[in-house]
Write a structure and sequence with these properties.
By secondary structure, the protein is mainly β. It has one domain: Leucine-rich repeat, LRR (right-handed beta-alpha superhelix) (Alpha-Beta Horseshoe), CATH 3.80.10. The chain contains 2 helices and 10 strands; from the N terminus they run βαβββββββββα. It has helices at 15-20, 133-136, and strands spanning 4-6, 28-30, 47-49, 56-57, 71-73, 78-82, 95-97, 102-105, 119-121, 126-127. The strands form 2 sheets. It has a 6-stranded parallel beta sheet with strand order 1-2-3-5-7-9, with no helix packed on it. A 4-stranded parallel beta sheet has the order 4-6-8-10, with no helix packed on it. Helix 1 links the parallel strand 1 and strand 2. InterPro entries: Leu-rich_rpt, LRR_dom_sf, RLP_Defense.
Length: 138
């Protein structure tokens, strides 16, 4: 059973994306420098690197339901919009890397629950407001 998949510097499409749906035990996914980052519903993922891609627009809502995710790297994409409030529900998250995108708004809080963040990078975005205390203490 496959636990780690690295497809750096490729252009996955068609059947390769359909395979993702069957990788229910996949823990680590590395799609660095690709043109597409459709990942389907990989609920077992704990590490995902989709940095340096040609993605644009908002963070897909499907990524905010990956409850086992501990590392999420979205750096240097053309992502924009607000960071979804549901990102605050990713309690296993220890590293969130968002720098060099076009995110706006505030960093979402999580209703007083503590994040386990040990790394939070969001420079070179258009974020405003204070960094929530639970992030600073992470």
């Amino acid at each position: 059973m496959l636990h780690t998949l690295g497809l750096n510097q490729n252009s996955p499409n068609g059947s390769i994306l359909e395979i993702f749906a069957n990788l229910t035990e996949l823990v680590s996914l590395d799609l660095l420098q690709n043109q597409r980052t459709d990942i389907g519903n990989l609920r077992s993922l704990s590490q995902m690197d989709v940095s340096h891609n040609q993605g644009s627009g908002a963070i897909p809502q499907s990524r905010t339901h990956l409850t086992n995710l501990s590392i999420l790297d979205l750096r240097q994409n053309s992502s924009s919009g607000v960071i979804p409030p549901s990102m605050a529900n990713l309690q296993a998250l220890t590293e969130l890397v968002l720098f060099e995108n076009h995110f706006t708004g505030i960093v979402p809080g999580n209703s007083g629950k503590d994040y386990n963040l040990t790394r939070f990078e969001a420079s070179t975005n258009l974020l405003s407001g204070a960094v929530p205390v639970h992030v600073r203490e992470g």
